[in-house]
Write a structure and sequence with these properties.
Layout (H helix, E strand, L loop, with lengths): L4 H27 L12 E5 L5 E6 L8 E2 L2 E2 L7 E6 L5 E10 L2 E9 L4 E10 L5 E9 L10 E9 L2 E7 L5 E7 L5 E6 L5 E5 L1
Antiparallel strand pairs: 1-2, 2-5, 3-4, 5-6, 6-7, 7-8, 8-9, 9-10, 10-11, 11-12, 12-13, 13-14
Length: 202
């Protein structure tokens, strides 16, 4: 027996209503879903606040977002894989990065002021394994200064077997250097405002 056009229309309306209600129930069910996984493989994870702003991004090289500072987006010299931290305004404020560039491998952990790098821990070695370095960098902030205008004050590092501590003045120029070379020989140098060695103790 053939259905009348009116019966068909009523059927479609009922079907549409049931489908809509079903989809709405599914969305409500997944809104606050909590799942436990033993393993998950993804290319990027965004951890956001209640407003949807990124607070932490975990990504591979291809999915790493460009840096945003002061509400403006900039271009990275190269894209690393790792973690990126954001403040409540959405500005990048630190991270953990791993990358290869210019024939070297980098591992970096950094925390920033609002206008420049503050603390950085970095390891670097060339892909041939002949040259290496690892160290800690500490910068001063220059309040109200343009982006990237901080002053490097402390460097503690080892490079190809030479370990050293360098302390800079408020102008960023070296004033004190304490070193131990690859043969184990220690020495201390102090510099004047122009960077000239005024005293050396071995």
């Amino acid at each position: 027996m053939l259905k009348s056009p009116n019966s068909t229309n009523r059927f479609l309306i009922i079907y549409s209503c049931i489908t809509t209600v079903g989809l709405a129930m599914m969305l409500m069910a997944f809104k606050n879903v909590k799942e436990t996984f033993d393993e998950i493989s993804v290319k990027r994870i965004n951890i956001v606040d209640d407003k949807g702003n990124n607070r932490i991004v975990i990504a591979n090289e291809e999915r790493t977002p460009p840096p945003m500072v002061g509400g403006q987006t900039y271009k990275r010299r190269f894209n690393p894989a790792g973690f990126i931290f954001y403040d409540e305004k959405g500005n990048e404020c630190g991270g953990l990065a791993m990358a290869k560039a210019n024939g070297s491998g980098f591992r970096v952990m950094a925390f920033d002021y609002d206008n420049n790098d503050a603390i950085g821990i970095i390891t670097q070695e060339d892909l041939a394994g002949k040259n290496f370095s690892a160290g800690l960098m500490v910068n001063d902030k220059v309040p109200g200064a343009p982006l990237g205008s901080g002053v490097n004050r402390i460097n503690l590092n080892t490079t190809n077997g030479v370990a050293g501590l360098q302390i800079n003045g408020p102008d960023g120029k070296v004033r004190l250097r304490l070193m131990v070379d690859s043969l184990g020989t220690p020495y201390l140098e102090t510099m004047d405002a122009k960077g000239k060695v005024v005293k050396k103790v071995i």
